[in-house]
User: What shape does this take?
Amino acid sequence: MIRDFAKRCEKSMLASTVITLVLGIVLLIEPSGSIQVLTAIVAILAMLIGGFQIIDYIRQKREEKMLSLSLVLGTILLTVGIYLMCNLKSLVIFFTNIIGIAICIKALFKIQYAINIRDLSDKWLYNLVVGGFSMALGIVLILNPFKSAELFLRIIGGILVVASIAELIETAIIIKSLDDSKEIPFKEKENKDSEIVE
Assistant: This one.
């Protein structure tokens, strides 16, 4: 009983591992398509929510419309959704640019800090090198955001593939060991009747 339950648990986890493996392979082979699919999903959600907001505004009573923001929010979301659907690379470019700018700003502080402690510590060069490397990374993200995002997704895909393969091997080993093991009988604790002392 216990062995069979353990095997069922391992097999159920096996299904999720296979799904993770497939996702990793997709990200590794076709990161550009994955980005566009994710952007399309966000665009559809924005259009649906925006549409519902506009419909909700139309259905509202006149006095409710005076204080309602449904029309404004709905129009904004609907416009954003349509824009994203027409420009499937725009969302990832926007976020990658934001990340690149943030990295550059942090790198500037790092470089300035390195210059400030130049006469106080012999470790200032380390901070300067790290700051320079971070600045270069931030500039790459800003100048070539889509390719940078593709590379990032490839790295994630590779990690998922390696981790999933390791899990599959581990699951196979555990299932084999469960097949070779003996069933552990489940023993219920015997409850002794307490003696009633009069």
DSSP finds seven helices and no strands in the chain. The chain has one domain: 6-180. Residues 116 and 124 are 8 Å apart (CA to CA).
